[in-house]
Amino acid sequence: MDIIIALILVAIITISVKAVSRFLPFSVCAICMGVSGAWVLLSLAILTGVVPSNLYLDVITLLMGGTVVGIAYQAEKKFGWRGEKAFWSKFAVIVAGFYAAHVAVGGLSWTVFAIELFVLVILAYLFFIRQDGANLKSHSAKVEKLEKELENCC
Fold first, then answer.
1. Averaged confidence pLDDT in the chain
2. Which residues are listed as membrane-spanning (predicted)?
């Protein structure tokens, strides 16, 4: 039943964010928000004593893993990682993120919860609100020159 409740939370949050996102001045990954929102709410439910930790820590770990993979792929898009760099960068994010998620779930407390929220807010700002990053890099003069040369090469 614990996974069913988690999946219902993911669905409700995802659909809600999708419905509201068209009114926002920036794009948001509704699925990312749904998965992250579910484990945040479940963590809060454990910390407030609403649900027992022994039933939901495994589900929270699973959802955090999904968030970590989502972070890796959002970073790839945001920073314009390509080829080998994309592989190794995502690999590093996933390994470090899985370890961080494991530590966070194992030591779930109000302090850890506050740190998790802080990290999520920073990442949401970086990936969805801030408008530079990959866009500035991909439109630099050097990149544009190389793109023109490649268009005319063959």
1. 89
2. 23-49, 55-75, 87-104, 110-129
